Amino acid sequence: MSKEEKRTELSDLGEFGLIKEIAETVSNSNKKTVKGIGDDAAVISGSKKNTLLSTDMLVEGIHFNLAYCPLKHLGYKAVAVNLSDIYAMNAIPSHITVSMALSNRFSLEAIKELYEGINLACETYGVDLVGGDTTSSPTGLIISITAVGESNNETVYRNGAKEYDLLCVSGDLGGAYVGLQILEREHTVFKGNDQAQPELSQYPYVLERQLKPEPRKDIIEFFNKENILPSSMIDISDGLASEILHICEQSQVGCTIYEERLPIDQETYKTAEELNLSPTICALNGGEDYELLFTMSLKEYDKIKDYNGITIIGHITDKNSGANMVSSGETVIPITAQGWDALLRKD
Amino acid sequence: MSKEEKRTELSDLGEFGLIKEIAETVSNSNKKTVKGIGDDAAVISGSKKNTLLSTDMLVEGIHFNLAYCPLKHLGYKAVAVNLSDIYAMNAIPSHITVSMALSNRFSLEAIKELYEGINLACETYGVDLVGGDTTSSPTGLIISITAVGESNNETVYRNGAKEYDLLCVSGDLGGAYVGLQILEREHTVFKGNDQAQPELSQYPYVLERQLKPEPRKDIIEFFNKENILPSSMIDISDGLASEILHICEQSQVGCTIYEERLPIDQETYKTAEELNLSPTICALNGGEDYELLFTMSLKEYDKIKDYNGITIIGHITDKNSGANMVSSGETVIPITAQGWDALLRKD
Description:
Helices cover 34% and strands 23% of the residues of chain A. Chain A has helices at 10-25, 71-87, 108-125, 175-192, 204-211, 217-226, 240-251, 266-274, 279-285, 301-304, and strands spanning 33-35, 42-44, 51-59, 91-102, 128-136, 141-151, 166-170, 232-235, 254-258, 292-296, 310-317, 323-326, 332-334.
């Protein structure tokens, strides 16, 4: 960093001092919040609707690289990916808790930047941050977020897809993965020559997809407004192929999707080709798009056909047919999951 | 370890394989569980009562040392400390999620041992494990648990203590800290001479207090049965002194406690003296006892005076008097918090 920046050591603040500083950045506005940060537990007013609960852990060096992921974006994304899980149940997130372990490499100013992103995501999605834990880590940063939500209408699971249902996705796919490849390429160039300026300005869309994913609240609101109940739903975190296989396995069905129907943004397509990557493979296995994959009865077709953010990519078949993709060349290819597996890394 | 043990590498299983193995060890029995592990989020049936939410993160090398903390005990304790936070709100925990980051130093067998402890705590306290996240860590083990509960009766906060209220604690204090000192002493001896056998058999109570704390579900059940509503409550995780100051600060009151009233088990007392530690300081600042500290109106005195697990250690005063302890020698000493501060450690 070129300019002189203030650095407040966490060791000078202590845990309670840090919690106080964090709490001051948080403002609660969700009507269900009875008590936020500051007691043994947060208190949320009861409701007869189902309560949804989802949690994710992000580890520095595994899930993010602070060399090219700004802390504010990291905070935003850490919240966004959790909210996405709640939306994927046809539910509305209302509250989160944020726990983190951090080494003394991080200053108060850095943590505040992280919370700027966390708080921005909370405001954007109407969610209150009501608790957490803050502790030290021998190395690096670990963030664990738990999201709580309330069912919107009926809860939608992964296991309700039926033969002949339409298979649909929101938004477009592959962008987040392609964005990550660009960030890693420019980071490698930068490491070799620290006078190099990263070339990022040509890739605004795919970088945004990687650094600032937006969970599809709008789709759940659209379902609610139009009285649409998907038969099954999941969010796309590990890649379309992996999520399709989850739905097929849990619903005991097969499916056919069409390569030419896969929604891929032009910038994603062009950048994938520039990187010598197949845009289709990026869409199928890239992951981190945080779009929704869902199935619905054919009779709902009229309700969704004109909605701009939904693409029908195929349909559900019987289990024995398996999960297949019809390629642009008209060949039938079995769908296999190649989502990255964080556990493959060595100590 | 002397016997040959089977070691299944997590990298051979992959994340989904590990989740499947973990899910098979988990059985849900809480009536409110609609859907546990296996979808984007867990589903809990709604209730008009308040929902409580608490979370804790435990980091290897900061909060636990696997050289002397068996994985099964670690799992049990990680759950117990979270449930303690829910009980401290006068509520009943019902569900938890467990996230962990682990390095490839851990085998499937080690993780199963950890989950044995987690599952045992869940069974003991009637809590269902309904979700989580499993990922890799560059080094060591990090566990993040979120507990969800439902209010028992009225929710009890830290801020309701009133002048003249009785100040009470459950159980006895200082044991967990003294137990930790014994474990660290024997570990140091063992490191110097690996033929040495740790001398632990004389310290069964304090070791149990450190390794297998039990949150005070029974006290909350007693309150419910006797229709007792504490005016304020907190669980003792950082040490009695620190928790007293939280109640005084949030309730805008002072207090007087009496050194001779502090409940200290005989083994704790004797072992503290053996270690040249003041039993009173261990009780005040040791932490990790997971007992309940609470205040209640004088008129409730008859309801609690004969209950074996509750000790009245003092009373609430006006704010200007401050928080003080009357020592055995009749001198008045201001109470100051010296709970260990995890953030003081360096990277």
